Amino acid sequence: MHFLPTVIRAEYRGEYRIYLEFSDGVENTVDFSQWLDGPVFEPLKSPQYFQRFFLDGGTVAWPNGADVAPETLHEQAKASQAA
Predict the structure, then answer these.
(1) How many angstroms separate the CA atoms of 34 and 39, rounded?
(2) E-strand spans in the chain?
(3) What pLDDT shows up at residue 80?
(4) How many structural domains is the chain composed of?
(5) Secondary structure class of 25 (helix, strand, coil)
(6) Structural domain span for residue 24
(7) Torsion angle in degrees (nearest 10) through CA of 30, 80, 4, 47
(8) pLDDT digits over 17-30, tens only?
(9) What are phi and psi of 17, to 5 degrees?
């Protein structure tokens, strides 16, 4: 069975960036601006609303039901770490 790392800590870092720490030890600041397309993500374009994120189901989510898959966030965090 494939192990899926989950987000265990998230901290706002300005604009659309959130520092993420995963259950497998990967950590990095991820820029979420690339995912703010479509109706469910429209409210997140407001900096005040964006900052209302919370952890749910091992990923970052918002009160309107928007979220980004944990595997997508993990891949982005790892890619940024290697750069």
Answers:
(1) 14
(2) 7-12, 17-22, 27-31, 54-56, 59-61
(3) 74
(4) 1
(5) coil
(6) 7-82
(7) 10
(8) 999 999 999 999 99
(9) -105, 140
